[in-house]
Design goal:
By secondary structure, the protein is of the alpha/beta class. It has 20 helices and twelve strands. It has four domains: 152 residues, Rossmann fold (3-Layer(aba) Sandwich), CATH 3.40.50; 116 residues, Rossmann fold (3-Layer(aba) Sandwich), CATH 3.40.50.620; 49 residues, Helicase, Ruva Protein, domain 3, CATH 1.10.8; 98 residues, Orthogonal Bundle (Arc Repressor Mutant, subunit A), CATH 1.10.10.350. The strands form five sheets. It has a three-stranded parallel sheet with strand order 1-2-3. A three-stranded antiparallel sheet has the order 4-5-8. Strands 6-7 form a two-stranded antiparallel ribbon. It is elongated, with a radius of gyration of 30 Å.
Length: 445
């Protein structure tokens, strides 16, 4: 028995979407589970729609989600001689013929026969097609490029593909492809057509449901491991109730038999939950690196921040994030030169009797010549509370409103450390200056 060889064959006419990523993943997992290999083939024979930057984006997305070690990429546009040779064979055998079209030019067409075609699909079982419903079709276009179905069959044979795992939208191509396999005398591979992914409304997943490409989810702050884990479960399960699994664990458990025959529904809340689980479990240094990259991708300059600062950041925000974007959105006050003040918070906290005077004392406590660390900040603030015999809440909240503009943030020690000494003192000074105009405008001067 020949070793298993699967293939992922995207067209570079767009970015890698969720459905394509799942197809790539299932081919990759099946190959690994059976000790086989996967081929990456770029089907770029549509000269009007194929674009090089889409190819680069697809390759980047595959690398990001951890699909590697495949054979290729192979480009169909660099293999035109193989299609020409196969077309000549079909013409010579009488299975294909030249066709003159006044508008489209001279092309080669395959002669279809009125047969009932049966295909044993690994997911759907035996599927029947009435080939009489399919007309003769073009296999080599007038520009010398092959049609999709023709190039697909020729390549799958010459690349030794044993299993074709793809979306069930390709079922409609089966009558023509089976006709080509038989006319060329090629052994048919085994087929597995994966049911589609539906949006929350039960309609095929599309852009109107929100993000659909792998790159978009990356830009929204999802971790690659979480997205891969989630996509794998859109139509497959290991059968033992597990939900959080590494790529290695999925490969060890994957079987085509456990791929469902019905469409799967995309659940954004489930994806967010799963991403939050991965954020909580991720090694702190790895999470810090992921967060640093996300900051850079969103134009946040952290070049002056230390490794210790990044570790403190992820420690402070880890439990508050379902995505990396949550961390960025919640911490804008740390990086912005100006912040918006919540008027209600200002009235409720800083409007209390003695709050401004206490904030003045705290400014003196925080200033001075000492290392600006979480530990030193905590020591000074707690010493102040003991000295004046006041509860810590009456210290933390005025500082929080002055520093962040609102009443919600990580613990005040970590918040002050992350904001930095100069910026923290400057924001306290805004409040102490009694600048009503600054607060009415909701901005720090």
């Amino acid at each position: 028995m020949n070793p298993v060889r699967t293939r992922f064959a995207p067209s570079p006419t767009g970015f890698l979407h969720v459905g394509g990523a799942r197809t790539a993943l299932y081919n990759y997992l099946f190959a690994r589970a059976t000790g086989g290999s996967m081929v990456l083939r770029i089907e770029d024979t549509d000269r009007q729609r194929s674009e090089e930057h889409f190819t680069g984006a697809i390759l980047d997305s595959l690398e990001w989600i951890g699909i590697e070690g495949y054979e290729g990429p192979h480009y169909q546009s660099q293999s035109l001689e193989h299609y020409r040779e196969a077309a000549e064979r079909l013409i010579g055998s009488g299975a294909a013929y030249w066709d003159e079209d006044p508008e489209k030019g001279r092309a080669v067409k395959l002669l279809m026969h009125d047969d009932l075609v049966e295909v044993a699909d690994m997911i759907h079982g035996t599927v029947e097609f009435d080939a009489s419903l399919a007309d003769d079709f073009v296999i080599m276009k007038s520009d010398g490029y092959p049609s999709y179905n023709f190039a697909c069959v020729v390549d799958d044979h010459r690349m030794g593909i044993t299993h074709v795992i793809r979306g069930d939208e390709h079922l409609s191509n089966m009558p023509r492809q089976i006709a080509l396999y038989d006319a060329l005398g090629f052994q048919r591979p085994r087929f597995a057509h994966i049911p589609m992914i539906l949006g929350p409304d039960g309609v095929k997943l599309s852009k109107r449901h929100g993000a659909t490409s792998v790159g978009e989810y990356r830009r929204q702050g999802y971790l690659s491991e979480a997205l891969v884990n989630f996509i794998a479960l859109l139509g497959w399960s290991p059968g033992d109730g597990r939900e959080i699994m590494s790529l290695e664990e999925m490969a060890a458990a994957f079987t085509i038999e456990r791929v469902r025959k019905v469409p799967s529904q995309f659940d954004h809340e489930k994806l967010q939950w799963m991403n939050g689980q991965y954020i909580m479990r991720l090694d702190p240094d790895r999470l810090a690196a992921e967060m640093a990259d996300f900051f850079a991708a969103n134009g946040i300059d952290i070049s002056g921040r230390s490794a210790d600062w990044m570790r403190n950041f992820v420690a402070a925000y880890r439990e508050r994030m379902k995505t990396l974007k949550d961390g960025l959105d919640a911490s804008r006050f740390i990086f912005d030169d100006s912040i918006e003040y919540d008027a209600a918070a200002v009235r409720k906290v800083l409007g209390r009797e003695g709050a401004i005077e206490r904030l003045s004392d705290l400014r003196e406590v925080l200033s001075g010549d000492y290392d600006w660390t979480v530990e030193n900040i905590e020591m000074r603030l707690r010493s102040y509370c003991e000295k004046v015999n006041v509860g810590f809440g009456k210290v933390a909240q005025p500082l929080r409103v002055a520093i962040t503009g609102g009443m919600v943030s990580p613990p005040i020690f970590e918040t002050l450390y992350l904001v930095g000494r100069k910026r923290a003192l400057r924001r306290i000074d805004v409040i102490l200056s009694g600048s009503a105009e600054a607060l009415e405008e909701g901005r720090e001067t």
